[in-house]
Each structure stands twice: as structure tokens, then as C-alpha cells.
Amino acid sequence: MTTETAHTHHTAEELADLAKKQLAGILSRTEPLKPKDRLAIPAQEMPAQDPNARRKNMSEVASGYTADQARLEAMRCLQCKNAPCMAGCPVRIDIPGFVDAIAKNDFQKAIDIIKRNSLLPAVCGRVCPQETQCQEPCTIGKSLKDVEKSVSIGRLERFAADWERENVKMKAPEVKPATGKKVAVIGSGPASLVVAADVRREGHAVTIFEAFHKPGGVMIYGIPEFRLPKKIVQMEIDTLTAMGVEIKTNFVIGRTRKLKDLMDKDGYSAVFVGTGAGLPKFMNIEGENLVGVFSANEYLTRSNLMKAYDKEKAHTPIYSSRKVAVLGGGNVAMDAARTAVRLGAEEVHLIYRRTEKEMPARIEEVGHAKEEGVIFHTLENAKRLIGNEFGCVTHMECLRYELGEPDSSGRRKPVEIKGSEFIAEFDTVIVAIGNDSNPLIKQTTNGLNTTKWGNIIVDENQKTSIDRVFAGGDIVLGAATVILAMGEGRRAAKSINELLAK
Amino acid sequence: MNKILAKKKLSENVFMMQIESPLIASERLPGQFIILSLSDDYAERIPLTIADADPVKGSITIIFQAVGKTTKNLAKLDAGDKIANLVGPLGSPTHIEKFGTVVCIGGGIGVAPMHPIAQGMKKAGNKVVIIIGARSKDLVIMEDEMRKIADELIICTDDGSYGRKTLVTEPLKELCERSPKPDLAVAIGPPIMMKFCAAATKPYNVPTVVSLNTIMVDGTGMCGGCRVTVGKETKFVCVDGPEFDGHLVDFDNMMKRLNSYKKQEKLHDEKDCHLNQQIETARKN
Q: HEC states along A402-454?
């Protein structure tokens, strides 16, 4: 089943002009906006690069609201007393508060409000699955019977964060006088960055240990430049460095140093494990180890971290593809498919065994992927991969599915249709069906309790089975989101700070 | 950190480097490897085995053949230069215990990673028989170091310029026919050599460990680029290995996977050759 591409493209200039006129109209009114008026303000479209142009570059696709657009979008908010949006936010940002500040043209106040609860607004505004979180219960969306018409809280969050970055000289948060205590943070993804900042603020020395040669975790190696510019992540890291956080790259805890040695030999009073869900799942089907079959992690790391998309400069090769199949329906699948488009593949097909409704990817990413020409096949899945005499994948045997009863996740379970096998030609297959937890820390740390899937077990304070060792993010949750990882980091930092205050 | 303390050319295209890295030097165990890259942006990450380490001096020794882009650039560095990124020790260490008689087969620069393993096996009280294989006499490395460890040392060259003119599998078979037969064989070298070593010991039921050096990006289990088929299962060389039961490894699949980027690398090389030629011509004129 193939689906058509989305609506016509409006240029950023068109959207800006339109917003300017609309805002002027509203500001010239004498009486205040009534709920009816707010409902009538058109939902602001996110300005984006032209789909045909962006198929050939790595630059960010969505360029962000103009101030006029942001204010108009913010004026759509009804300022509900019960603020259902806040209940949908994992870190409970005062959403009506910051949205109101944007509507009133006080962008500094808006970002100050956001920062009380979130440390990475420029990142979360871009990558959070808002339509299943804050925007899902939005009264405006409910009234218009379309979650895509909810107030675009995420875009407003991004606007406020970008506005601050571009207009205010950022100063590092204040750090309390040194306590003489040291905390080790393992990994440098979203959970770890939050722990590092929150713990450092209390005056403790913090060292981040990162296995790669660059910090940032999934925000650097996983999420592509066109969705999250690396300079934004780098700024967050620079802020930490300015606060005095030490970052040791090329350092694998469990190998370069054992976790317990950090406490027993190196003098760290507490350890936070935020190593993420880095162990790609494969499907255990025939032909999975053929040449041309990759995990999305590998494909994306080559392109994002190693910059293999820059074929002139990069020493790391990336597979030259003609016809690509991406297996999966999450954000990582969209990222891999859209990267393949940009790397010059003639055809990119996304294969998902449920329907589009069940796709875990953000609606915006699905829309962008379609606009860029990714061909969607739902209710299909790979059964077997077929190779040639050189061991390279050439074909994929697929199977069709239909939706059955809801499963444990509440989504209708895909059931295979017997005898529906068919064969399609592909020279590249990218597997994006999720990650298991990385086994390194578990394998090398006695006494660290994990679930049968290898996720570290923590209590409500993010404390693990080992004294003074805390964990959070995907290594606890399984593959989840940046915002959830951040929430866990916040909690862990609070526990660590309480422990060290004793 | 990561300063090159010494460099030595062992043979045409084969180099030894001693690199300052105190933590890796003290933590590393036989069988483990490192990943290095020569700059933060655009450089490639490549896995290399650790040939030796000196925890007192805080250094590790790597031995590599300048064949690819990164190893060629690495070979251009000298003592005093720094390696931008060096991470390790990675992989699970070799399982070392007293087995009895252990045959260690090192082919080409595979002798380098074999060195700490042979050392470990000897220290654990094993009788250690070492077979070194190379194309010709010039390419035999670490003979003196290995001779110090070996209870018996056999050298084979393809062209007969040194030692026996034969492949390593011949003396390996002979050893398997001895009574008592070896209790363990460990083979490290080109994939094809490891494949035939495993095939040679199979009929004699001599357990055979091989150490695989595959394509890798992170080396911590994150990318899965290093996966190999062992038995019917998919294993990651970086976290499940690098050592596996040689009788179960699908070497053909592994060798094909090693060639995944041959086409692109060739293009890159040709472009480089072309550039070099232009530079040469410019210099002459």
C-alpha cells in the first residue's frame, strides 16, 4: 500500500507575510480576545525548506516560527484553568504561563518559565512527541477535533529557546561553592546532561565519561542534522563546560575503568549511569547478515557522527544505495529513510507492519518523510533477505499483515496473512525496530540488578541496587524519548544532591 | 595523552608504535583491542589489536599494516605526535587457564595480538607451541619476542624464504596428529587463514579459538556493524567477542562483510592516487 505525499508547500516568506497581516489585525482590535476569537486564529504552519531542495542537503528542515507567527500561535491558547497540557508534559513545564508570555511579546519571560523545568528546550522543542504528550489533551485540538490543530506548544518552546540563543548573551548557571565531593556521570545523552548540570549547580565536581570521541549521545550520533542541528547540542555542552563540568571522551566505563573503581579507587561519591539503549535489535530472519543490511544506529552514526554524508571530506564510508528498504515506524526509521534520500538513493521505501496510525514516529517526521519522497508501505514486513554470490542483499521477501486484537501496548496487533509473500528488489536494508539496553555496564558490574531485557532496575528515586549508584534514561526505560530521559535525570540529580548533602 | 612514544618500521608497510595511554595499559588484558581515529571531524574510527602493554611506563604497543586510508595516515605520524582519539581496551579478554598444550598460530600481523595471548597462556602453565606464518621472510614479525615464550616455535613462509615453505595449516595438522594432541588452538590472522586453521583442527576435535577483526564504528555494541554469524546465531564482535569458537564461525559471510565498502574505498584511493600524481607532476615541473 503506497500513500501519497502531503499538502502543497508554502515558503517561509509567504507564511511570515501572512502572519504579519493577521497579527496586525488582532493587535488593532480594542476589546480582548474571546475564546471564539482564539479558536478562529489559524494554526500557524511551521516554515520549512522546500521538499525538493532539502532532499539534497543536510540543513535543518524546519526553520522555526517568526516572532509574529509565534505570537499568533500563542494567542490561540485558551489559558485553561486546569491546564490539561501540563499533565501531558513529563517534566510539567508551566505551559500556559510561557505561552501567555509569548503572546504578550515577553520572550525572555517565556524562556525563563520553560527553564524552570526543562534544561534542553531547544532540543525538546524539536524532538519531543508533542502530539502524544502536551498537545494531545489541548482543548483547542479537542474543540477542532484534530490533534494537529492543537496549540503548537513544541514549536513555541523551540521558538523561545531559539530566540534566547540568538538574542541573549548566554551565561552559565550559577554554581554554589565547591563541596569537595565528586560525581561521575556515565554517558552524555540527555539524561546525563541534566544530571551533570543539576549536580554541578550544588557545587559538586562532575565528570562525564563518554565512550565516543564527542559528547551528546543520541543527540549527536542518532538524530540527524536536518532535524536537530549539532550546534544546538554543542551549545548545551559548552554551557556545562562553562559551569566547570569535566568531560572525558573516549572513555568506556566497564572497559577503560570499572564502575566500582570510580568509587573505590577514584574518589567519586556517587555515580549516575545514563548509557542509553545502545544495542540494536535485529529481526532474526534469514539473510540478516548479508552485505548491505545495517542497523539504523550504524547507518545514522556513519552519517551523523562520522559525517559520511560529506563524501569529499569524510574518511568513513557509507553504503551507496539505489533502492533502500527501512524497516520500522519510529523516529529512527524516519531519520534513516530521510538520510538515505539525502545520500542519493533513487528510491527509499519504509516498511511497517502496522498502519500509519500506530506509528510511534512524530506526525511531523512522517509528514516530512512523505514530502521528501519516502514511499510508505504499511501492514507489510520482511520475512527473509536474499543475496547474490557476493553476499550482498538483492531482494527481500515480504509478507502482508492485517490488524487483529489490541496487544499489551494497546495497539491492534498485526497478524500475518498466510500465503501473502511477495518479493521486492532492494540493495540496502536498514533495520530500525528498536534497541535493547547496552550490556557493557551490566556485564562488568557485579550486583547491578537488571530486568530480563537488561534494563537497570531503579526505585522511585532512580537509585539502583548498588549503593550510591543511580541510573536513568533509556538504560532504565528501554528506548524512549529525550524528555523522559531528562525527567529521569532530574530525579536522579535530586537524589544525588540529597545524598551528598548528608 | 595518546602521544606516540616510539615508532619502528617492522617490514614493508608494517609499523610498530608505542603509545602513551596509562589507563589502557593498566586495564588491558590479552585479546582486547583499541579503536583510534586521527581527528574529531571526518576521520574514520578503526579497531586495532593491542600487541603489548607496559603498565609501569603507561604505554601500549600496536602493530599495524598500512593498507587503508587511516592506517596509511597513521603510518605518517612519528614519535612525539599525538593520536587524536584512542579508546579501549575493548572486547572481552581471552579466556586463559591451564589447558595443557596450546598451539598459537599467528599469520602476518596477527602475530602481534597473539603475543599477549601466548604470554598469558605460558604464564598460566601451558606448554605453548607457536606457529608464525608470513608471505616471506621480510614479513615475519616479533620472532624474538615469541621465541622467548614458545616451548616450540615453527616458522612458515609462503615462498620458503624463511623456515618451512608451507602454510600454517600443515604444521598445525602435524601437531594435531601428535599424541597427546593439543588441548587448544588459538589462531589469529587473515580471515582465510583462520578459516583453514579451524578446518584443519576440526577432524581432530581440537577446540579452536579465533580472534575476529571486523568493520566497527563504536566498539561498544551500539552499531552492530561488526556482527558475525556464529553457529546459527548473530554475534557482535565488539561485545560478544572478538574471540569465538572457530568451528562455528561463518567465515565466508564474515569475509564478504569485510568487503562491504571495497568499491567506495577503491574510488577514494583512486582519487588519492590521482591527487598524488598531480602533486608529483607539479613537483617535477
A: EEEEECCCCCEEEEECCCCCEEEECCEEEECCCEECCCHHHHHCCCCCECCCC
Contact A214 B40 (CB under 8 A): yes
Residue A478's CB is within 10 A of a number of other CB atoms, namely 15
Residue B278 in this model has a pLDDT that exceeds 90: no
pLDDT score of B273 more than 80: no
Query: B211-238: per-residue pLDDT in tens?
Result: 999 999 999 999 999 999 999 899 999 9
Task: Please say whether the beta carbons of A195 and A185 come within 8 A.
Answer: yes
Triad A444, A437, B48: Cα angle to 5°: 60
Contact list, A287 vs chain B (CB under 8 Å)? none
Asked whether residue B24 carries a pLDDT value surpassing 90, the answer given is yes
Q: Cβ separation of A257 and B27 shorter than 8 Å?
A: yes
pLDDT at A436: 87
Nearest CA in chain A to B228: A289
pLDDT of B271:
52
Query: Hey, are the CB atoms on B85 and A249 less than 8 Å from each other?
Result: yes
Contacts of B225 in chain A (CB under 8 A): 294-295, 298
Pick the CATH number of B101-211 from 3.90.25.10, 3.40.50.80, 2.170.150.70, 3.40.50.720: 3.40.50.80
B42 touches chain A (CB under 8 A): yes
What stretches of chain B show up as alpha helix (H) in DSSP?
22-27, 69-76, 111-123, 143-149, 169-177, 191-201, 237-240, 251-258, 262-284
CA distance B255 to chain A (A): 9
Architecture of the domain made up of A32-45+54-167: Orthogonal Bundle (1.10)
Separation between Cα atoms, residue A338 and residue A299, nearest integer Å = 12
Shortest distance, CA B268 to any CA of chain A (angstroms): 9
- B24 to chain A: which residues are within 8 Å by CB? 256
Q: Outline which parts of chain B fall under CATH 3.40.50.80.
A: 101-211
A292 and B260: CB-CB below 8 Å?
yes
Looking at residue A3, what is its pLDDT? 45
> Tell me: the pLDDT tens digits for A383-410?
999 999 999 999 999 999 999 988 887 8
Contact B244, B212 (CB under 8 A): yes
Does the predicted interface ipTM exceed a cut of 0.95?
no
- Which amino acid, A486? M
Cβ separation of A252 and B90 shorter than 8 Å? yes
Residue B87 sits at the chain A interface (C-beta within 8 Å) = yes
Flag if B227 and A289 touch (Cβ within 8 Å). Answer: yes
With an 8 Å Cβ cutoff, are B222 and A438 in contact?
A: yes
* Grid-cell match 550520533, residue found: A221
Dihedral of alpha carbons A155, A157, A163, A165, sign: negative
Whole-angstrom distance, CA of residue A201 vs CA of residue A121 = 18
- Integer-rounded Cα Rg, in Å, for chain A is 23
Write down the architecture of domain B2-90 according to CATH: Beta Barrel (2.40)
* Minimum CA–CA partner of B21 in chain A: A256
- Taking the model in full, what pTM does it have? 0.92
CATH architecture for segment(s) A182-278+436-500: 3-Layer(bba) Sandwich (3.50)
pLDDT category at B285 given cuts 50, 70, 90 is very low
pLDDT in tens, B240-260: 999 999 999 999 999 999 988
The C-alpha cell of B23 is what?
589507563
Task: Give the residues of chain A that fall short of pLDDT 70.
Answer: 1-7
Give the residue from chain B lying closest to A299, CA to CA. Answer: B223
Minimal CA separation from B27 to chain A, in Å: 6
Asked if A294's CB is within 8 angstroms of B90's CB, the reply is no
Cβ contact A282–B252 (<8 Å): no
**Closest-CA residue of chain A to B46:** A316
* pLDDT value at residue A171: 78
